[in-house]
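#struct-pred

JT: dropping the chains for the assembly here, can someone run the whole complex?
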Amino acid sequence: MTSPKFDHDRAERAIRELLIAIGEDPDREGLKETPARVARSYAEIAGGLGQSAADVLTTTFDLGHDEMVLVKDIEVWSLCEHHLVPFTGVAHVGYIPSAEGRITGLSKLARLVDVYAKRPQVQERLTTQVADSLVELLGPRGVIVVVECEHLCMTMRGVRKPGAKTITSAVRGQLRDPVTRAEAMSLIVG
Ligand SMILES: Nc1nc2c(ncn2[C@@H]2O[C@H](COP(=O)(O)OP(=O)(O)OP(=O)(O)O)[C@@H](O)[C@H]2O)c(=O)[nH]1
Ligand SMILES: [Zn+2]
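RK: done, full complex below.
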C-alpha cells in the first residue's frame, strides 16, 4: 500500500540531491537507478501513511469469546523519525473482547501494527496508537501492547550500543488491573 500523498518524482529528486550532498556522483554506473529504487522502497516502508486502523480492522466476528486474545512476537520494522533509519523488533498485542465477545481476525492485529510502523515513527507513539485504535474500533474491555525494539540509530551511529532494547507498553481498561496485567505479561514473557 502506497500513500496517496506519495510523490515518487519528488522522492527520486531528493535522493539524487542527497547523493550529491554526501559527495557521490549520482550519474556513475552503479548509482544511476538508485534514486528511483530508493523512492520505490520508501513508498513501501512508509506505506502505513496511506492507511488507517479502520482500513485493516475490517473483519470482526461476534464469537462470544470474552477471554484474553494475545498475538505475540509480531515482527516490527519501523523508521525512526529522528534519523530515518530502521528500528526493529517485535510487538505483542493482546485484548479482552467486549462483553458481547467482539473479536477481530488474528492477522488484523499484525496488520494494525504495520499501519503504524510503516511510517516515520517513535516507539512510544507506535505503541499507544496500536492500543488506542483497538480501543476505538473493537470496544474491548482491555488492551495491552508491548513493543521491544532495537533502534539502528543507537547501533550503527551516535551512541553505538548494539543490543540495547527499548521496551514500551500501553495498557488500557481491565488490563490495568494488576492481576490481569500480570497474566498477560506472563504469557508475553513465557
Ligand atoms: N523516546 C524516543 N527516542 C528516540 C526514538 N528513536 C530515536 N530516539 C532518540 O531521539 C533522540 C534524538 O536526539 P538528538 O540529540 O536530537 O539527536 P542526535 O544528536 O542524533 O542524538 P544521538 O542519537 O544521541 O547522537 C536520540 O536520543 C535518539 O536515541 C524513539 O522511538 N523514542
Ligand atoms: Zn533515531
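JT: nice. The pocket of guanosine-5'-triphosphate (ligand 1) is lined by residues 80, 82, 122-124, 151, 153-154, 158-159 (CB under 6 Å). Helices lie at 8-21, 34-45, 53-56, 106-117, 123-138, 152-155, 178-189.
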